[in-house]
Amino acid sequence: MADNEKTILILEDQFLKDANLGADLEERGMKTIILQAESTDLEQVVKTAPDIIISDLDQQNQKDPFHLISAMKNDDRLKDSEIFILSDNIDVSTEIKLRRLKLHSYFLKDRGMDAVIEAALRWFNRGQDEALTSQQEREKILREKVLKSKAEETGKPLAGAGVSDESISDATVSDGEFDQLLAEMQDGVSTAIDSREEENDDSYSKGIALLEENNEKEAVDELLKVSGERKPAALLALGKAWRGLGEHQKSINSLKEGFTLSDSLIKKLEFRYEMGETLEDIGKLKEAYKTFATIYKNDKDYKDVKQRLLKLQKLLKEAKS
After folding, report:
1. Total structural domains in the chain?
2. Is 93 part of a structural domain of the chain?
3. Each residue of 67-79: pLDDT tens digit?
4. Residue 92 — very low, low, confident or very high, per pLDDT cuts 50/70/90?
C-alpha cells in the first residue's frame, strides 16, 4: 500500500455503480480502483494493494456469499487492508459470521453512502484524530495523577477547597519530571480511557458466539452487559436467547425494547420477525400471524415470511374447525 496515497478498492456491482460511490470518494481526496465484483478473484484484489476494500455482500456468490470476503480477510498479503461490507440486511446470523472473520465495518444500504464515506475518512485519519481529541484530556489526567503521587510522597496536600497554592509548593513537579512520568503512565491511562468501550464490544462478541453454540444461558449473561450503540443488536440476540431458554416473556420484552431503540426499517422488521417466532412458539398464532403480516406488507420477500403466513393461516383455519 502506498504511504501517502489513500487507496480504496471498490468491488463494484450495479448497486455501487448506481450509488456513484467511487466519484464521491474521489471528491473527498481518496484514490479509488474499480473492479467488477462478479469477475474479480483474490489475486486481482491483492495486486491492487488497497488500504480499504468495499464489497457488497448481497452480490457475492449466493451459494457462499462469504467466499471471497473470507479469502481476503485470511490472506496475509491483505492483513493491513480494512474491509467494508454493505448489505440490505445484517441479521444476527450474518453478524456472527462477520464477527468471526473479525470484520467490524459493515453498513446497511438504506442508510446511504455518507456513512461509508465518513467511515473511510475516519479510518485514514484515525491516528491523527485520536491524538487531537484525546491529548488534552490525557495530559490533564496524567498531571493530576503525577501531582497526587508527589503529594503522597511529600505529605503535602493538593490544591483544593481551603488549600492555598503555597501549601503545595513541595508537591509540584518540574516539566522534566512531568514528561518522564507522563511517558511511564501513558499506556495505562490510554487503556483506562478505552477499556469501557472494549469491554462492551467484547461482551457482545462473546454473547453472539455463545448463542451460535446454542449456549443461551451464558449468552444471556454476556449480552445483558452490553450498552451504548450495541444495545439494540444485543437486545435482538437476547430475544433469541431467552426464547431458547423458554423465557418467552423476557424474549418479548427484549424485542419490544430493541424495536423502540431501532431507527431503521430493516432493523425494525428484524425485531418483528423474531417477535413473530416467539409468539408462534408459545401458541399465540393469531398474534404471530398479524406480526408476520405487518412484515409482509413492508417487504414481501423478507426471509420466509410468506411461507410462515401460509402455515399460520392453515393452523388458524384448523383451530376454528
Report:
1. 2
2. yes
3. 888 899 999 999 9
4. confident
